[in-house]
Structure formats: structure tokens, C-alpha cells
Amino acid sequence: MAKRGLPVKLSDLSPTQFENLLYDLMVAKHMVNIVWRTPGADGGRDLEAQSVLVDTSGAQTVAKWYIECKKYTGSVGWPTIYPKLSYADAAGADYLLLCTTSKFTPQAINSCEQWNLVRRNPKIRLWAGHDITAQLSQFPDLKARYGLQSAQSTPGRS
């Protein structure tokens, strides 16, 4: 966490802190039925959650999300993503969200885009470190809790 009140970078969090942050972010983003699948054999995901969409008629659609957290210093490539995708596909997940403190290789991005074009489910979503930082901008209290900004900032909505 932060030393002497100075904000830390996302990459400074431990793997457990990074998973905790993403769990809390999913709660803040109104995901439901969130289940932690670690430690141990996680079946291709660290978190499992559901999103609920209510359409104009009032009908609800529930989507199953597999969320994988990768605290990496180097880029995440397609060979790392594909086995996670296989687990999500076999389990009937609607979405696979891969989150990393770093970034994704161009091949990984292209392969995920191609998958999303030709396959129905699961859809792949990628959050690189800068995407997570952008998501967290909506929730300053989460940033403060994890030392990613000073605690004197205005409280957020989560």
C-alpha cells in the first residue's frame, strides 16, 4: 500500500490486493452473486459474477462473467488467454473479462477481436492497467482504500 501517504501505482499492489480491488470494483459496478475462486484450482477464473440487465419491458437478462486477474509486469499474450477462454466456454460463461496491471500483446488483442467477431459466447473483454485506472476514476473511495490516490480526495459513489 501507500508509503508515507503517497499514492501507489496499480502495479505496486500484491496479487491478492489486486484481486481484492477487482472484487470491490465488481461490487461497485453492481455485479451480483460474486464468488471468489481462489486460492487453489480456480477453474480458469479468479472471480465469477453475474450482471443483470433490465430491458424496457421489465424483463431481466442475467449474464455469467468469468473474471481473471493477472498481476503481470510484462504483456499478457494469447497463449495465456486461450486456456482461460476454454474454461469459460466449457462452463457456459457469457463473458470472460481479463484484467491485468500491465497490457496485452497486439496478437492477444487481435485474437480476442477475431474471437468476438466469429463466436457467439463467451465474449472476451480486456482491461489493461490503464483501463482499470479509468474504471476506478468513477470510484475515488476505492482508489483511496487501495492507496491509489491520497485519502484527502472527495469520497466516491461506491
Structural class: alpha/beta
Rounded mean pLDDT is 88
Order of helices and strands: HEEEHEHEHH
Q: Describe the strand arrangement of the main beta sheet, using strand numbers.
A: 1-2-3-4-5
**Quaternary structure state of the chains depicted:** single chain
> Based on CA inertia axes, which overall geometry fits?
globular
Amount of helix: 25-40%
SS summary, helix count:
5
Low-confidence stretches: none
Characterize the main sheet. Answer: 5 strands, mixed
Q: CA-to-CA gap between the ends?
A: 20 Å
Q: What value does the Rg take, in angstroms?
A: 16 Å
Number of strands: 5
Could you tell me the strand content as a percent range?
A: 15-25%
Commentary on this structure:
- With 158 residues, the protein is an alpha/beta fold.
- It is 34% helix and 22% strand.
- It has 5 helices and 5 strands.
- A 5-stranded mixed beta sheet has the order 1-2-3-4-5.
Structure keywords:
158 residues; alpha/beta; 5-stranded mixed beta sheet; 5 helices; 34% helix; globular
Q: What does this entry show, briefly?
A:
By secondary structure, this protein is an alpha/beta fold. The radius of gyration is 16 Å and the shape is globular.
List the helices and strands and how they pair.
Blueprint (H helix, E strand, L loop, with lengths): L14 H14 L3 E5 L10 E8 L5 E11 L7 H13 L4 E6 L5 H13 L4 E5 L1 H8 L3 H6 L13
Parallel strand pairs: 3-4, 4-5
Antiparallel strand pairs: 1-2, 2-3
